[in-house]
Amino acid sequence: MADPVRRDRYRVQAETDITELMKGEQPRLIDEWQDAPRFWDAIRYDVDHSAGWGHYILTGSAVPPDDKNERSGKKDIVHSGTGRIVRVRMRPMSLWESEESSGTVSLGALFKGEPFKPGKAVERSLAETAYLVCRGGWPQAVSQDGETALDRAFEYVDAVVNSDISRVDGVSRDPRRTRLLLKSYARLQGTQSTIVNIRKDMTIGDGNGPDDDTVSSYLNALRKIFVVEDSEAWCPALRSRTAIRMSPTRYFSDPSIATAALGIGPEDLMNDIRTYGLLFETMAVRDLRVYADALNGGVSHYLDRNGLECDAVVHLRNGTSGLVEVKLGGESLIEEGARTLNDLSGIVDSSRQREVAFKMIVTATGDCAYQRKDGIVVCPISCLRP
Predict the structure, then answer these.
(1) Which of 37, 105, 125, 264 could form a disulfide with 383 if both were Cys (CB 3.0 to 4.6 A apart)?
(2) Is residue 98 assigned to a domain?
(3) The predicted structure's pLDDT at residue 77
(4) Does 80 share its domain with 132?
């Protein structure tokens, strides 16, 4: 439906006789189907009257409207596809998918309680991992090298700023303001910054900054096109009355969006280790989300009023969870992460919920994964798989 040569004809056809566009060898793939929301009900009706599974694949780069086609202003009711249509979120590629992880450590095996076996990693220097952070998991970039691969993220950000953020719902948004928001979000990766803080950060040097509602509107548009994906708070049963902070943790869907928004590359990360650490965390969360998806799970974040914080909590439908700290590497940082994991697991009330399945420190470097005497797995990111 995004074909520049045929899309006008396709849209007219979708309005007049959409069944013609559904004819053809199955599975029939409709790309950017949300540009013609009538596909949803037409396909829903067709599968109700067809035998078997897998007749259609609907792909799109934006969340479809819930109750209307916002571009045209016409009402197009999108009914539930429950029992007929399965939703799958396609994320940027993890290191396992791009064949840049050895996959010797399986999250699934850790959840099952299988005995841990040390695994060899794809050994990389900090500089080489910085390159992966800046390149990102874009399929086209993964197949390229050097500066050419790094350019893909900059091109993606330019497209978001100049067209995608307005195209998603037909609301015109200021490219300059969008770029300021992306830069602010990049600086705040891995934090629980509020809309107010983001607005203030955007207003620096610009006395006519946006209001809170405008920032929220821009962020909602970025969520619809899968640019940002915040991490919700994990709320376990605790032995104490410790209050858990419920603010979401700010993340892009891929770390390369942050580096491109800031206009930086691998060398810049090597010269700013603090920023490097935050953006490596974004890459680790990206990969953990991919692996959790494969296990029918999700990833959350923990922070309480006492300042105890865990970077990622991987949790499955059956209530099991794994605690993960993300560190660039080095003994002092690993020890810091271990203290956090032990402190948090120590206050989880196992009489009211299932015990923590595993504790892990994901690092940017290292030649192998190993298990410490306290049971914590130290695992280079280039070891992991679902």
Answers:
(1) 105
(2) no
(3) 46
(4) no
CA–CA gap between residue 187 and residue 216 (Å, rounded): 17
Q: How many domains does the chain have?
A: 2
- Residue among 255, 254, 185, 189 nearest 218 (CA): 185
Q: Can you read off the two tokens belonging to residue 283?
A: 């890459």
Torsion, Cα 14 19 24 30, to 10 degrees, reads: 40
Residues 6+ apart with CB under 8 A from 80: none
pTM of the predicted protein model? 0.90
| DSSP annotation of 384 | E
Looking at the fold, whether 5 and 151 belong to one and the same domain comes out as no
CA 156, CA 137: separation in Å to the nearest integer? 12
Ranges of H-type helices in the chain: 7-16, 19-22, 38-48, 107-112, 126-135, 139-142, 146-159, 165-167, 175-187, 195-203, 212-224, 255-262, 266-271, 273-294, 331-347
Same domain, yes or no, for 68 and 110? no
Q: What pLDDT sits at residue 310?
A: 97
What is the Cα–Cα distance from 247 to 230, expressed in whole angstroms? 10
Helix (H, G, I), strand (E, B) or coil at 119: strand
Select from 88, 122, 140 the last residue of a domain. Answer: 88
Q: How far apart are CA 222 and CA 186, in angstroms?
A: 13
3-state secondary structure of 180: helix
Q: Three-state SS string across 13-73, please?
A: HHHHCCHHHHCCCCCEEEECHHHCCHHHHHHHHHHHCCCCCCCEEEECCCCCCCCCCCCCC
Q: How many whole angstroms separate alpha carbon 285 and alpha carbon 232?
A: 12
Please give the angle made by the CA atoms of 316, 320 and 325, to the nearest 5 degrees. 85
Closest CA to 257 of 156, 333, 371, 343: 156
Pair 83, 119 in one domain: no
ω into 27 cis (within 30 of 0): yes
One-letter amino acid of 75 = K
Same domain, 72 and 190: no
Residue 100 located in a structural domain:
no
Q: Which two tokens stand for residue 115?
A: 């005995």
